[in-house]
Write a structure and sequence with these properties.
alpha+beta; six-stranded mixed beta sheet; six-stranded antiparallel beta sheet; 32% helix; SpoIIE family protein phosphatase; hydrolase; PPM-type_phosphatase-like_dom; PAS_fold_3
């Protein structure tokens, strides 16, 4: 069979000079000298030289050179140890010196490279124990320097040369330390012609594979016959390379030794293309894996992955661990982790996260924050999940549109098994051609099993936490109301232990346009039971508050309710009713922490509030009220003990720190103030609730007037006169007719249909007049369903609703309040609205 021209010529010349005519019957067996030169050439070395010096020598002496470019890079015979050459510098520092073309220009003395010639140089000191010392010098034709893999190989080569020189201490120096060292490294080399399947190999390669020179016929199939069948797929990608595979590749494979054992070998090769772009030759080296510097310790990697997955609690945590364990160590360009939910794959982690790196079909199917795609559009993944077997697809594989671009250079599809079924899939893709070596396959298989179990645990954890989160969100307010005189913000952080749901709660209850209740509480414990009690208490406090009860009555009712539940849990609570018209707060504290107030000048203090016992202990407990003034610009903070108390933080110290943090905070943004008070969101022993109010004061204070209606035959007339006088004083005569009609109807209904006192309150707020009529009946007024011409009543409420811009009824303590709002037309003069003056409540 015809051989490749350059290969055949090189073999013939070397064969005759190296081995003699006796070996001419093996035309594909490479002589030792040629094999050594080829191995060094594959390592990016055009010249290798070794210098030595004795203990008392002042110069380095050239011992041997080898390489195909000895004439192009002539090394000097001697170099002074004290000189400025790169070799002398490396020996003095004791560290390898790697120089690219610009770096080499800085060492003009004694360099073997002519000026302005693009080349690289490496100077590797040789270890000396018996007094001998030296340096291995390598020159490469690339101006960019040696790559990490080449440096690693040459570093091991320098160690082997040093071992050869030490072996000659006390005797004659070996005549060829470079060749002897390379032979001792057991590095075999080869040149393969893909079109013919013929291969030139050296004796070292045959020895590694387990073939004697007499058995070798120059065919690649003869070498492949000794490989383990499971690794044949990877080796065939070397024997039959694709047109895209024109770069260096690394892979590992196993061979059966003549004794029956198995040996791991590592193969590195480079595919050289011809003029037509097709693969023309494959050059490479083969080394026993025990002689190689492994890119990663697989055992250590599995140990790290196991420990990292133990700490991964959520599905996203598992995804981040998978990316850290696979993408960079394997040199992958893409990693995707997807959960299997029914017939859909829900992608939880994409790296890189940008959608432009992933198939167009995926982006078309993504409908939620985390993308998802039906398995039906991805047959490759469907088959892998069905069979539960890892699939490794080499470069050039044609995929369905749903996987185009994920791994053009190679794609690994890893089903993630757990308890006998697949719970997800991991995709690992490479852009450049990638070879799947056997150790890598074993690593991916072990990784898939570990990740599958971790993903199953994380799914159960996420489901539990989702349930807890839904429970907590359903028990806490979704949003806080907008307040006319301030801004309220709240934060809740669950405990990082257990179910992450607890008994802390907060609430902001708008009682009227100028009154608001701020509530914070804490039910004992942080469990589902505590959360349930918390939800009941929050609902009860809100119900009692909107009925119009004063703060002490609200808390007393809540206390009796909790006592009647016959639960072993108790609760603490701090209730604050803010009157934004009067700039005053009424506090009631039931076993809870004192509130904090930051004054406009920055001074922060605990508010002295009288306290009662926790809720749920004594049914007849008393809860006194404490009135505290507040000025615009102040910040009120209500906290639970989880924020200021811990095993290593006494309560007094925690409150002191909280005051200090509130003092230095900028109240311009209450949200940032709340975040600053929470501090680090690290693990907490207890859940935390925080409620802040920045009080700005009322921009427009309402004008009010009130009248206690007498139960007399002419009571409606007196109520109309009171209303008319008030509207004239407020310069709101434009709406007098409508307001008087509303007052007449509401007062008449209250006197006719209820017993007890009746009261009318008028309020002018901005451009609205509000009429409120209160009585002692809890029943809301009902409009008639049918009103005909013969009906003697029922039209009053219909008239009120027609004349009002807004109309309604609210329960109050001991009865109800029916109200109506009527808009006052705007006037051009500023005197139309005495908005800065507060009228007395009771005018007669």
């Amino acid at each position: 069979m015809p051989h490749d021209g350059p290969v055949q010529a090189g073999v013939s010349e070397r064969r005759v000079s190296g081995y003699g005519a006796a070996r001419t019957r093996y035309p594909s067996l490479l002589p030792e000298a040629a094999a050594s030169e080829r191995a060094l050439t594959f390592a990016g070395t055009a010249l290798a030289a070794v210098y030595t010096a004795g203990p008392t020598d002042t110069e380095l002496r050239l011992v041997e050179t080898t390489g195909r470019a000895t004439a192009a890079y002539p090394p000097p015979d001697r170099l002074p140890l004290s000189g400025g050459s790169a070799v002398a510098h490396a020996i003095r520092t004791g560290r390898p010196l790697w120089l690219d073309a610009p770096g080499l220009a800085g060492y003009p003395e004694g360099r073997p490279v002519p000026p302005d010639t693009p080349a690289s140089l490496g100077a590797l000191p040789l270890r000396a124990e018996g007094g001998r010392r030296g340096c291995l010098v390598v020159v490469g034709p690339s101006a960019s320097g040696f790559d990490p893999e080449q440096r690693g190989f040459l570093g091991r080569y320098a160690d082997a040369v040093a071992d050869v020189l030490r072996a000659g201490d006390g005797g004659a120096t070996p005549t060829s330390p470079l060749t002897t060292a390379l032979r001792g490294m057991h590095v075999g080399s080869f040149t393969l012609v893909p079109d013919t399947g013929l291969i030139e190999a050296d004796e070292t390669l045959l020895d590694l594979v387990g073939i004697t020179p007499d058995e070798f016929d120059g065919k690649a199939d003869t070498l492949l016959a000794h490989a383990v069948p499971e690794d044949m797929h990877a080796l065939m990608s070397v024997v039959e390379p694709t047109t895209q595979a024109v770069e260096r590749r690394e892979l590992e494979f196993r061979v059966r030794c003549p004794t029956g054992g198995m040996r791991w070998l590592s193969l590195g090769c480079r595919v050289l293309a011809g003029a037509d772009g097709r693969p023309e030759r494959v050059q490479g080296i083969v080394t026993a894996t025990s002689e190689l510097r492994r890119s990663a310790d697989d055992v250590s990697r599995i140990q790290w992955l196991t420990a990292a997955l133990d700490d991964a609690t959520t599905v996203r945590d598992v995804g981040r661990v998978v990316v850290s364990a696979l993408r960079e160590p394997l040199g992958a360009d893409r990693v995707a982790l997807a959960e299997l939910q029914g017939d859909r794959l829900v992608v939880t982690v994409l790296d890189p996260p940008q959608t432009t790196y992933w198939p167009e079909r995926w982006r078309a199917e993504w409908r939620t924050e985390w993308p998802e795609a039906p398995i039906g559009v991805l047959p490759t993944l469907k088959t892998a999940l069905r069979d539960g077997r890892m699939d490794l697809w080499p470069a050039g594989t044609e995929f369905e549109p749903g996987l185009l671009g994920v791994g053009d250079g190679g794609l690994a599809v890893l089903p993630l098994p757990a308890k006998g079924r697949a719970v997800g899939v991991c995709l690992i893709g490479w852009d450049r051609p990638h070879e799947f070596v056997p150790d890598e396959r074993a690593l991916l298989t072990a990784t898939a099993a570990l990740v599958g179990d971790a993903l199953k645990r994380a799914q159960a954890h996420d489901a539990e936490q989702e349930l807890a989160t839904m429970l907590q969100r359903s028990l806490l307010p979704r949003r806080l109301p907008d307040l006319p005189g301030g801004i309220a913000v709240a934060r809740y952080v669950p405990a990082r232990q257990g179910l992450q749901v607890g008994g802390d709660w907060y609430d902001v209850i708008a009682l009227s346009e100028d009154r608001v209740a701020l509530v914070i509480g804490d039910v004992q414990g942080h469990s589902a039971g505590a959360a349930t009690i918390m939800g009941q208490m929050r609902t009860a406090v809100r119900a009692y508050a909107v009925e119009g009860h004063p703060p002490d009555v609200v808390i007393s009712h809540a206390n009796r309710l909790l006592v009647g539940m016959e639960t072993d849990l108790f609760a603490t609570c701090c209730y604050a009713e803010l009157d934004m018209e009067e700039d005053n707060i009424l506090f009631v504290r039931a076993g809870h922490l004192s509130p904090l107030m930051r004054h406009p000048d920055g001074r922060t203090e605990e508010v002295l509030v009288e306290g009662g016992p926790p809720l749920g202990i004594l049914a007849d407990a008393e809860f006194p009220m404490t009135a505290v003034p507040i000025v615009p610009g102040a910040v009120l903070a209500l906290v639970t003990d989880g924020l200021v108390e811990a095993a290593d933080l006494p309560l007094d110290e925690g409150m002191r720190r909280m005051c200090a943090s509130l003092t230095v905070a900028d109240p311009a943004d209450p949200g940032r103030v709340a975040d600053a008070l929470l501090g680090d969101f690290g693990p907490r022993e207890d859940d935390v609730a925080l409620l802040l109010l920045r009080y700005d004061g009322m921009l427009t204070r309402p004008v009010k007037a009130g009248w206690a209606v007498w139960r007399l035959p002419d009571a409606v007339m007196h109520a109309r006169r009171f209303t008319a006088r008030t509207l004239r004083r407020w310069h709101a005569q434009e709406v007098a007719d409508a307001v008087l009609l509303v007052v007449s109807e509401l007062v008449t209904n209250a006197l006719v249909h209820t017993q007890g006192p009746v009261r009318i309150d008028l309020t002018l707020r901005g451009d609205r007049v509000r009429v409120c009529v209160s009585d002692s009946s809890p029943r809301a007024p009902a409009k008639p369903v049918i009103v005909d011409w013969e009906s003697t009543g029922g039209r009053g409420l219909m008239l009120v609703e027609a004349m009002s811009d807004a109309f309604g009824t609210v329960p109050v303590a001991g009865g109800k309040q029916v109200w109506s709002e009527i808009v006052v037309p705007r006037r051009d003069t500023a005197s139309a609205h005495p908005g800065t003056r507060t009228e007395p409540r009771d005018l007669s």
